[in-house]
Design a protein that fits this description.
Strand content: 15-25%
Radius of gyration: 24 Å
CATH architecture of the largest domain: 3-Layer(aba) Sandwich
Number of domains: 2
Structural class: alpha/beta
Strand order of the largest sheet: 3-2-4-5-7-6
Largest sheet: 6 strands, parallel
Shape: elongated
Number of strands: 12
CATH superfamily of the largest domain: Thiamin diphosphate (ThDP)-binding fold, Pyr/PP domains
CATH topology of the largest domain: Rossmann fold
CATH class of the largest domain: Alpha Beta
Order of helices and strands: HHEHEHEHEHHEHEHEEHEHEEHEH
Oligomer: single chain
Amino acid sequence: MTVPTTRMERATWLADEGGLDAALDGHEFAEPLRLPLTEALVLGLLRQGVSKYLVIFGHGSTELGETLRVYEAAGLVRCYQFRNEVEMSHAGTALRLIYDEPCAVVTSIGPGALQAMAGSLAAASNGVGIYHLYGDETTHGEGYNMQQIPRPEQGLFGRLTAAMGGSYTLYAPGAVRDALRKGAATVFHPTKAGPFFLNLPLNVQPAEVVVRLDALPTRPSFSPLAPVDDDLVVRAAALISSCPRVAVKAGGGSLGAARQLRRFAEAAGAAVVLSPGTTGVLPDDHPQNMHVGGTKGSISGNFAMREAELAIVVGSRAVCQSDCSGIGWPRARQ
């Protein structure tokens, strides 16, 4: 299969094929392709189901912006223009948290990226997987770029983003597959998802990279975990049936299992105590929903924690917001 040679022709061809996955299913590609790095990145994100970009473009993201312009014109991606980076980060977090749609936040370089990074705290604290794509200083060692951190050191943004979550600086175009693989492992992790920051140096963005489209990393597959035998399940069922006062502590890990949590709580006759980030996992008017418990808790939530004789923790780390630093379950024996 011969692939068109220009970015615009490739985008049009992929759209006519029904998208990247359909093209890969319908054709065998004999040779790798030589693409601009930003196009390889956009195609790699498409393979992971990322087609929505929340953007504030600037001089640090013009090359990425050109690729997105071409691919949006072909109907393969959609860009949403924002005016505030914090708002943009929060909108991306809500898009993934509420509708389970992965997306990417795109900013330029300097203060815009810092604001987007501040907004990423919402994703980090709630375990929400989302890509952050930032422009970055060149790899030529000339120091900080316009409006970036004014210190003559390389890699400052990479150090900042690494403190916030998964982070990767694309110093060389050939590292794009490794960056996408590490990004997917963070953004789509089943229990410890979070923002993944991909810093794109100005001079690397337009550089060409040789890739095979079918070798671009897809979403990782995580096998479900279960007890090795039924003994633990039988013992747990016996404990639940023997305790008159059972409470379930529903942490952030329960967000993706609202239906199962409700069925379990109703079958066990258990009160459900929420964490600050899990309001909504059980309907607000459900009679077993005791709302938030812990240091930021409600009267009803803390009452349920105080009176419970059996505490069942679902997707929670049991930190101070969950158990008042170890004093929140005074009557629980199991």
